[in-house]
Amino acid sequence: MNVLDILTDARRRYAHHPALVMRVGYRTVTLTYEQVYTLSHQTAAFLAANGVGKGDCVAVCAPNSPYWICLFWGCMLRGAVVVPLNTQSTPEMIAKIIKQTEAKLFFTLQKVSALREVQEGEPAPDFDPGACNTSFSFACGPFSCPSASCCFW
Length: 153
Fold this sequence. Notes:
Order of helices and strands: HEEHEHEHEEEEE
Strand order of the largest sheet: 4-3-5-9-6
Shape: flat
Number of strands: 9
Oligomer: single chain
Low-confidence stretches: 111-149
């Protein structure tokens, strides 16, 4: 059994049981194993549609949440490498890490306008600021996450 088999097995055995629970403000977000499985596969399909394959890096700068886990599983399903970034990192540090890892995609729930000019007042190489307007929204049943920015590097 490998790590991906765990997700499939958990879905089969505990489909309607809570898998991830997080308090968000006054509300509690609960995702079942079925929802985690579905969101993870939807994420993997999104990654595939955007050219992410085995060994490609995907940078993620977002706070801990059930949706972060689904993004992680989606990357694992594609064979992609997750590059977690500290949410308190400076735009310069984030841009440097993205460049060093050659991340194909960058997910964040934060505003990305500060990343638009990071190197001596000029856009980072191969960085298309307009691409950050692409949104990726996790939605499953009654629960949803605010749209995330997804930048194509």
